UniProtKB/TrEMBL annotation:
Lineage: Eukaryota, Viridiplantae, Streptophyta, Embryophyta, Tracheophyta
One annotated GO molecular function: ubiquitin conjugating enzyme activity
Domain UBC core: 157-317
Organism: Aegilops tauschii subsp. strangulata (Goatgrass)
Family annotation (InterPro entries): UBC (IPR000608), UBQ-conjugating_enzyme/RWD (IPR016135)
EC number: 2.3.2.23
Matching Pfam families: UQ_con
Compositional bias segments (type: Basic and acidic residues): 35-46
Cross-referenced SMART domains: UBCc
Keywords of this entry: ATP-binding, Nucleotide-binding, Transferase, Ubl conjugation pathway
Annotated coiled-coil segments of the chain: none
Annotated region (Disordered), positions in chain: 27-50
Protein name: E2 ubiquitin-conjugating enzyme
Length: 400
């Protein structure tokens, strides 16, 4: 369905309609001539609609076909209406029925076009600026695996599997994971995961470049994390290496390891979101899971979360300065929307709230801790002005 700015010939229609309206006004010298024109336009409207409206002539106010089409297009322009602009489809749709005199003021001639348009129901449509969750793009020049070879001589089974992956992603991606695939390189993919609430990564964006090897799915894909040189998670290295059992870069058993028959890229992305970028990443470190629930382990986890949030804020500044290709618009819109919440959380942490639990004074950690450390508050106090400056430099109003 075409948006209003895609309607071809709208300017010509507007010009023709305005000329018609001007001709009517200049030709009316007295009430007798105006009455004649009114009856002629009524006759034309009846001929166009092809319906028997004789019984309601005394109660209805009609436009000429040109003016009526003009009104409908104006309505489409203002409110994004997608219905056909033909007179027959308009007559059948109750939203665009001819306005009756009982609903108008005493003088229908005094009713402006805009006032008539305002009487129509305004359909609620998505913003034109909405960014697609899944999209096929061109130009993979900044992809980490762009120099990988093998995609030129892939087998038919490989192509079929990649197409299946695309279909799954297109249909089942959650709102907080965005994916771009490449028209000229089906072996490459780029994904963005939004940090979940309740974690030290909340509201940040995490980008991953993915490569499908020629023997995929018998071997898992290769994944590179856009780290910006920061180590903010035990599983995500400064070099971009991702440690995950599903990728065979971490120990695992059963459903944790890659299965050529059932594992998918969507499963991989959901695992990164839930198992890596989680509420207590400290325990992701090998062997640390045995300290879960113990006082020392929980205390260390809080300290790790404080450092992870500081690094996450630095990561935001890096992403704002250099967003990955094909995600520039999404980065700007995401942080425009979330910047007030991020800064509000920072102020809450400066006030003592625990990381991931801003404005939740009732939350107490497993070791009984209720607030952030003094050292963290000092570091965040120094970092916060830089984060605000990064938002402002990107054209994002943050109110601070």
């Amino acid at each position: 369905q075409a948006q209003h700015f895609e309607i071809i010939g709208l300017e010509r229609l507007l010009d023709n309609s305005l000329e018609s309206v001007n001709e009517v006004h200049t030709s009316v010298d007295d009430e007798a001539e105006q009455e004649t024109i009114h009856h002629e336009s009524t006759k034309n409207a009846l001929e166009e609609s092809g319906e028997d409206c004789t019984g309601s002539l005394r109660n209805a106010f009609y436009f000429s076909k040109t003016a009526f089409d003009f009104l409908t297009n104006v309505a489409s322009s203002f409110f994004g209406a997608h219905d056909s602009t033909s007179s027959s489809s308009i007559t059948a749709d109750p939203q665009y029925q001819i306005v009756k005199s009982a609903d108008l003021h005493s003088s229908a001639e005094e009713f402006s076009v805009v006032e008539l348009v305002m009487q129509t129901e305004k359909p609620q449509l998505p913003s034109e600026n909405d960014v697609k969750i899944f999209d096929v793009v061109v130009d993979c020049s900044d992809h980490h695996f762009v120099k990988e070879r093998g995609h030129e001589n892939v087998k038919r089974g490989w192509l079929k599997k990649i197409q299946q992956e695309w279909t799954i992603l297109q249909n089942d991606l959650p709102d907080d994971i965005h994916v771009r695939v490449y028209e000229e390189r089906m072996d490459l993919l780029r994904a963005c995961i939004v940090g979940a609430a309740g974690t030290p990564y909340h509201d940040n964006l995490f980008f991953f470049d993915i490569f499908f090897p020629p023997d995929y799915p018998h071997e898992p894909p290769s994944v590179h994390y856009h780290s910006g040189g920061l180590r903010l998670n035990p599983n995500l290295y400064e070099t971009g290496k991702v440690c995950l059992s599903l990728l065979k870069t971490w120990a695992g058993t059963g459903n944790e390891v890659w299965n050529p028959e059932g594992s998918t890229v969507l499963q991989l992305l959901l695992s990164l979101q839930a198992l890596v970028l989680n509420e207590k990443p400290y325990f992701n470190e090998a062997g640390y899971d045995k300290f879960v629930g113990k006082a020392d382990g929980e205390k260390n986890s809080i300290t790790y979360n404080e450092n992870a949030f500081l690094l996450s804020c630095k990561s935001m500044m890096y992403i704002l300065h250099k967003p990955p290709k094909h995600f520039e618009k999404f980065v700007k819109e995401h942080f425009t929307c979330r910047a007030p919440h991020i800064l509000e959380a920072c102020n809450a942490y400066l006030g003592g709230d625990l990381i991931g639990h801003a404005r939740d004074s009732t939350y107490i950690s497993d070791d009984g801790c209720k607030g952030c450390s003094t050292g963290f508050k000092i570091m965040l106090g120094k970092l916060l002005p830089k984060l605000v400056a990064a938002f402002c430099e990107a054209g994002i109003a943050c109110g601070q």
